Backbone:
């Protein structure tokens, strides 16, 4: 309907529920696959993940490029910053979109006020959820690392940042800072 083209398949981590369909998506779109290098071993062992869940292993594909802290992923007028947020897995990443457009298409009122056109957005993968945090009892998980990632990287973002987790409803950084029972104040 919108004649969109998939430019990349960006993976926040390599647990089977997030990468099990990569081969099919790649074949359907021709888009390159991206993830953090620390999760490559986890992806290469997807058959063990499948066995643990009692399902057939999915077909695998190549990973075309690796994303690291500070990398930028661009499309159209938008750009997200890659935040390495280990803890759910060693290579977990989150993607932050401040909503500052790459070109000068903001209205003159927005330019004068320097206000963002929209609230910033965080694609948190399975690092942060509404009222919860990612589990750490699976491959590559670490509770201290996860809490460090959340406190030192995610909770430093503006309160109005809308968080889209890998599962469940959206939330905001401010809501999680104030009410998430796993994120008690230090």
Residues:
């Amino acid at each position: 309907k919108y004649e969109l083209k998939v430019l990349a398949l960006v993976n926040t981590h390599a647990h089977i529920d997030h990468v099990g369909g990569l081969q099919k998506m790649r074949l359907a779109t021709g888009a390159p696959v991206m993830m953090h290098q620390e999760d490559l071993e986890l992806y290469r062992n997807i058959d063990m993940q499948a066995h643990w869940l009692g399902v057939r292993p999915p077909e695998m594909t190549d990973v075309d490029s690796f994303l690291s802290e500070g990398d930028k992923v661009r499309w159209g007028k938008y750009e997200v910053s890659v935040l390495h947020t280990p803890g759910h897995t060693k290579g977990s990443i989150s993607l932050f979109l401040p909503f500052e457009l790459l070109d000068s298409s903001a209205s003159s009122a927005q330019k004068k006020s320097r206000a963002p056109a929209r609230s910033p957005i965080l694609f948190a993968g399975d690092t942060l959820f509404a009222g919860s945090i990612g589990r750490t009892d699976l491959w590559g998980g670490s509770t201290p690392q996860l809490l460090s990632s959340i406190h030192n990287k995610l909770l430093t973002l503006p309160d109005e940042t809308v968080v889209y987790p890998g599962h469940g409803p959206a939330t905001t950084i401010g809501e999680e800072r104030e009410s998430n029972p796993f994120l008690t104040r230090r």
